[in-house]
UniProtKB/TrEMBL annotation:
Listed EC numbers: 5.2.1.2
Recorded GO CC terms: mitochondrion
Keywords of this entry: Isomerase, Phenylalanine catabolism, Transferase, Tyrosine catabolism
Reaction catalysed by this enzyme: 4-maleylacetoacetate = 4-fumarylacetoacetate
Protein name per Swiss-Prot or TrEMBL: maleylacetoacetate isomerase
GO terms for biological process, alphabetical: glutathione metabolic process; L-phenylalanine catabolic process; L-tyrosine catabolic process
PROSITE patterns tied to this protein: GST_NTER (PS50404)
Protein source organism: Bucco capensis
Pathway(s): Amino-acid degradation; L-phenylalanine degradation; acetoacetate and fumarate from L-phenylalanine: step 5/6
Family label: Belongs to the GST superfamily. Zeta family.
Amino acid sequence: PILYSYFRSSCSWRVRIALALKGISYDQVPVNLVKDGGQQFSAEFKAVNPMQQVPALKIDGITLSQSLAIIHYLEDTRPNPRLLPQDPKKKAQVRMIADHIVSGIQPLQNLSVLKQMGEKKMEWAQNCIASGFQGVSHI
C-alpha cells in the first residue's frame, strides 16, 4: 500500500492510526499542503486524487480517498484486529461520533475553509469546533 499523507492532517492521522492498529505496513508519500502553494494542487497528485485532498491510499489495485471510507475498507478487507465493535448499537455510536468529527468539526479547521473566512476566522472556527465537541461529549 501507498499512503499519500500530510503530517499535520487529522484525516491522515486517522488512516495512519488504523493502518498501525491493523498491522499493515505501507509506503508513505508526503503531500505538503502548504509548500509551493499546496502540493495537493499539483497535476501529479490530482491524478491520484481529483479532490486534491489527503489522505489517499493505493491498496489492492484501487485508490481510495476520504479517511472513513479508507478505514471502512480496511475493516471490511482485513477484519482482524477489529476497529469497530461487533454490537450494532455500539458500532452505530462509533460511526455517529466519527461522522460528527469528519463532517461537523474537522472541516472547520481546514486551511481551505479558514482562508475564506476573513479576520475572525479563528474565533469562528473555535466556536464551531467547541460546539461540535460539546455535542459529541453527550453521546
